[in-house]
Amino acid sequence: MAQDIAPSDALRKWYQHDPKKWLEFKRRYFSELKDKKESLDLVANKAKKGIVTLLFGSREERFNNAMALKEYFQKRLKS
User: Fold this and answer.
1) Closest Cα to residue 64, out of 16, 14, 30, 3?
2) What are phi and psi of 66, to 5 degrees?
3) Which residues span the domain enclosing 23?
4) What is the pLDDT of residue 77?
5) Cα dihedral sign for 58, 61, 65, 66?
6) Where are the alpha helices (DSSP H) in the chain?
7) Radius of gyration (Cα) for the chain, nearest Å?
């Protein structure tokens, strides 16, 4: 649905799903998201109405872009 809110290729390659880089990955990813307001609004509006499924392409279940995006939206929807 909103592929453009995925992390950049450069960020994904830097991160390589290394849990030690998780906090810095999220910081950089959230910074990238600042330029994606239209797509983020679309997903946020869908989330207010029902369930949104976030996809990721990693075997790592805890430290991936979908989990980071979930955290981002949870904080955003609370404010």
Assistant:
1) 16
2) -65, -40
3) 3-78
4) 73
5) positive
6) 9-15, 22-33, 37-49, 65-78
7) 12
Give me the number of domains the chain comprises. Answer: 1
pLDDT tens digits, 26-49: 999 999 999 999 999 998 888 889
Give residue for tokens 């999220």.
26
Q: Are the CB atoms for 53 and 17 separated by under 8 Å?
A: no
58 token code pair: 């990693």
Whether the pTM exceeds 0.85: the reply is yes
Q: Sign of the C-alpha dihedral, residues 77, 23, 18, 32? A: positive
Tokens for 50? 């029902």
- Return phi, psi of residue 62, to 5°: -105, -30
Q: What is the per-residue pLDDT across 4-29, written as a single tens digit (0 to 9) for each?
A: 899 999 999 999 999 999 999 999 99
